[in-house]
Design a protein that fits this description.
Radius of gyration: 53 Å
Shape: elongated
Order of helices and strands: HEEEEEEEEEEEEHE
Helix content: 10-25%
CATH topology of one domain: L,D-transpeptidase catalytic domain-like
Oligomer: single chain
Number of strands: 13
Strand order of the largest sheet: 5-4-3-13-6
Largest sheet: 5 strands, mixed
């Protein structure tokens, strides 16, 4: 009887040894308190992939340079909208001739006298009309005349007025050109400038006459 009891104890001890040996072989610690394996909470379960690292890179990412806004282009004047443009500045008593946005001629003029409405040169915008040539008005002649518009009569651009004496042309009020307005409403030019203007061929060119604001 005692012999059987001792054999049973030896058998149990051998089985326990096998279990301990098996757990050591698999690398899983055995908890003798409850007879189960003690799992390591930091260990990764077998057969599952390791979690990916969520740490941010140590270097600071390079930011793209901030794009600054380009300044808005300055507004363009009418000289950039017309291939050929004539601007008559009554305050300066000067006529500016533009071609392709560039001033090619600055001509002294004399515009209408502000003494009365009938002789004033009004502000106006339009195109140069037909060639008139030589005409006679107010007791004088004028050459190289170009039609503009009607205002108490025809408004023209023309050469300085003159009278004929002994077959010669005697020009009138040349000292007013580029200085003060004395005409009957037309735009007077020096003789040589009037010839240049005709040779330039102004018909159809755009014209802007600025108002007279200066007191002469």
């Amino acid at each position: 009887m005692l012999k059987r009891y001792l054999l049973c104890i030896l058998l149990v001890l051998s089985l326990v040894g096998c279990s301990l040996s098996s757990g050591a072989t698999q690398g899983t610690p055995f908890d003798p308190r409850n007879g189960t394996t003690a799992l390591n909470p930091d260990a990764t379960p077998s057969g599952l992939p390791s979690p990916m690292s969520t740490a941010f890179p140590s270097s600071t990412p390079t930011l793209a340079p901030t794009r600054t806004r380009e300044p808005l282009p300055a507004p363009r004047g009418p000289e950039f909208y017309y291939k050929r443009l004539i601007v008559i500045d009554q305050d300066r008593q000067t006529m500016y001739v533009y071609q392709n946005g560039v001033v090619i001629r600055a001509i002294p003029v004399s515009t209408g006298s502000p003494a009365q409405v009938e002789t004033q040169t009004p502000a106006w915008e339009g195109n140069v009309g037909k060639y008139v040539g030589t005409f006679f008005a107010f007791g004088t002649y004028a050459d190289d005349a170009w039609y503009l518009f009607e205002h108490y009569g025809a408004m023209l651009i023309h050469g300085a007025p003159y009278i004929k004496q002994d077959g010669k042309k005697v020009y009138q009020e040349l000292d007013a050109l580029g200085v003060r307005p004395v005409s009957h409403g037309c735009i007077r030019l020096p003789t040589e400038e009037a010839r240049w203007f005709t040779a330039w061929g102004p018909q159809g060119a755009h014209v802007i006459i600025k108002p007279l604001t200066h007191k002469f």
